[in-house]
User: What shape does this take?
Amino acid sequence: MVDTKDFIEAPSVEHIAGDVTRVFSPNITVRKVAPRRVHFNCDREAIHGVCKYLRDALNFEQASSVCGVDWVDHLQVVYHLSNYSNGVMVEITVDVPNDDPHIDSVALIWEGADWHERETYELFGIIFDGHPKLERLLTPQNYEFFPFRKSYKLRGQQ
Assistant: This one.
């Protein structure tokens, strides 16, 4: 008989942090480990492989959110990935340069990431390479601006 306690508790945050860094080092580092949370920094070239590994090997069933951050000197993509069987969430941050805002899409790994990536593209101008339908959701297709970038100026602002 399978002990449900072992199933729910495994893999532990320590196991997740160690396993991912062992497989993807030096392209990923652990920023912080907390109860039911692991925070990683990842190189953008490795994000697709890391996410596929998290889904296939460590049972992360959902991309709960994919969002952008504008740090003025660079952009950042933040992923929150959930494993429902043990209640662990992984946060991965990936720096993306302003002058080359490309990163691999994870929408084919988790279909739920599709709209998150489209919204991040629309608001920040981050291009998700390999996305099945990367286009704007609400603003016109010919709209040239990205309203959540700090460089975006509203009418009348200097």
Remarks:
- The first helix runs from residue 4 to 9.
- The chain has one domain: 4-129.
- The chain has a mean pLDDT of 91.
